[in-house]
Amino acid sequence: MKKVLLAGIALATIATPAWAEDQEINKEEMVVTATRSEESIRQIPAKIEVIGRQEIELTSGNTLTEQLKKSSSISVIEYPGALAGIGIRGFRPEFSGITKHSLILVNGRPSGTTNLATLLTDNVERIEVLKGPASSLYGAEAMGGVINIITKKSTEEFAANIEVGYGSFETNFQKLSTGGAISEKFDFDFSAGRRDQHANIKLGNDGDDRPNTSYQTQNAALRLGADLGDTWRLDINGNMYQGRDIETPGDLAYGESRSGKKDLDNYGLDVQANGELGANNEFGITAYVTREKAENYSNNFYGSPVDTYHSYDSEINWYGSQLKDTYTWGNHKFITGIDFQYIEKKARSYNTDNSRKAPYSPDEARTNIAGYLETIWKFFDNRMTATAGGRYDYFEVETLDTPYKTNFSPNEEDFTYFSPRAGLNYGFDNGLRLHTTLGQAFVPPDAFELAGYSESFVNGVTMVTTGNADLDPENSTTWDIGTGFDRPELGLAFDVTYFYTDVQDRISRVTTGLVTSYQNSLGAEIQGLELEASFDLGAVLDWNRSLKFYLNSTNIIKAEEELAGGMMKDIHNVADYTYNYGIQYDDNIFDGNFHFRTVGEMRDTDWTAAGYPEIEYPSFTVADLVVGYNFLKQHRLTLTLDNLFDENYYEKKGYPKAGRAVYLSYSFSFPTN
């Protein structure tokens, strides 16, 4: 039987009087993101949603962004040409830079990725979505929430799967995954994939071809695991993504004059060791390094077509380590840890003849050292769970000496920040639970805002842009409260959560005379309602199959940010509402997912119109269908219809998504179950 659908899993409450500490909890109900310790999703106060492996396989789209927007009702920005970002709980989606409002993790460590289009789901076991502030555990960027990608860890019998497919826009793809025990102490996982789209996409509503939208990607991941004695384990994980000749079409308003292409690389390596230091003490250590690179090629120069030239490169390197100790005292836990991270960001720019020139922004680096404590308290035979903790962060940011950039002076600044959080969850015997959390989070200023300095000459006058060493981090206070109900024998589960976020010390640019600098002067206010519900008719009728109706939605009551002068405006690229709903079916031979996504109006700036006016996007509904057929034990056919009704829509104005697309794949698995 497949796992409970996202909406049902995330509700997290026990249906029968089973709160005793000796209760055996299904491992599929355990999550780690909410507390940095493995806990039952049914007992934690934080709002967690889990996207399981089967949900991933039955949802069209192979990137993390596609999975999140279709299963977790978050905000997204997506461009053709492999560029995407997300926003959680009313924060604007972000797709570049090392300072964001949503944090992306891989197995608990930073993903080392600013562009979510480079994160694929081939090797993913599940995705944990923590909605709400988590700076008390993870530090900077965890203001709207945290996405934790949990990769496969096969420790049982060896198994493998091979898949090939073909579909619209002359797309072909191949995948291989294998893993399992090599011996009594050693195990592994390996996956590799390739996807080539040789033709341009076709727009919805029987639209025209969209020029310059072909691409090629390849990816691989390897895990080596070993049991070291009776209580210690070592895992080494490596992953890579390569995008080649990814075409970037530019805004529709400019035709083909601003098209180009790019090559993308993303690499990651981590070593994790975990074990017991005593009967009640578990210790873990992680070391990681990641690299993200982009090489961009342009067909235009300041809007005028030219011969294709190498225009811009960026490279970001992450280095870090994590130490964590978990002490158990009866039913209670004390989780302490120290995190270290160093990030270095570099850029290179080129003239049309491919000679080097100064980049727009100087190179920068950020060093972060932090200590945290999270406590988990369980009372009344585990009916009530209380969590409380905090984290102290120290940051040093610096602008670096940058080749060809002579109009600034390297500098550095440092600051500290403390982030607390607390939560309470109570479960009743009838399947009802109540949960609430209160926490603070922060996003640090970037290096140039704190320590930058540059000069530019305009009509014979020297204009200066300088950092402000006294800047504070942008910070927020969020509280949420919700109620859930989960009765598996009735096939019914739902949860409704209200959240409120108050943002302070947003950073704005201020110009006085010939000098531009930065200051903490603005705020924002966000309110919303999250709803999840599922009903499994198969469970009610005691069928040997599942027929599940589901809903996952986010309704934004208010998402406004302050402007200079005290005026308020809607936060851009955040929809008034987002609904994911549909039907899933599974009888072990046939399975499928008929999915709908409805997105409400949102505001944005039209950068192609004079005066850059604010505009409103129209609402849209997109339907997808995935159907699988398992036969002869080892074989499977999967039909995917993306944008089934050929809707002409966009996530970002000027960059429409593809119309109807059809893909067919065949996979072979061994050994048989």
Q: Portion of residues in helices? A: under 10%
Name the quaternary structure: single chain
Structural class: mainly beta
CATH class: Mainly Beta
Helices and strands in order:
Blueprint: H1 6-11, E1 30-31, E2 39-40, E3 47-52, H2 53-57, H3 64-71, E4 75-79, E5 83-87, E6 102-106, E7 109-110, E8 124-131, H4 135-138, E9 145-151, E10 159-167, E11 171-181, E12 186-197, E13 201-202, E14 209-210, E15 215-228, E16 232-248, E17 260-278, E18 281-301, E19 304-329, E20 332-350, E21 356-357, E22 364-379, E23 384-399, E24 412-427, E25 432-443, H5 447-451, E26 453-458, E27 461-466, E28 474-487, E29 492-512, E30 515-536, H6 537-540, E31 546-562, E32 568-570, E33 577-586, E34 590-599, E35 602-605, E36 614-617, E37 620-631, E38 635-642, E39 661-670
Parallel strand pairs: 6-9, 27-30
Antiparallel strand pairs: 1-2, 3-8, 4-5, 6-7, 8-9, 10-11, 10-39, 11-12, 12-15, 13-14, 15-16, 16-17, 17-18, 18-19, 19-20, 20-21, 20-22, 22-23, 23-24, 24-25, 25-28, 26-27, 28-29, 29-30, 30-31, 31-32, 31-33, 33-34, 34-37, 35-36, 37-38, 38-39
Description:
The chain has 673 residues and is mainly β. It has a single domain, classed as Maltoporin, Chain A (Beta Barrel). The chain is 5% helix and 60% strand. The protein contains six helices and 39 strands. The protein has a 22-stranded antiparallel barrel. A five-stranded mixed beta sheet has the order 3-8-9-6-7. Strand 29 and strand 30 (515-536) form a beta hairpin. The radius of gyration is 25 Å and the shape is globular.
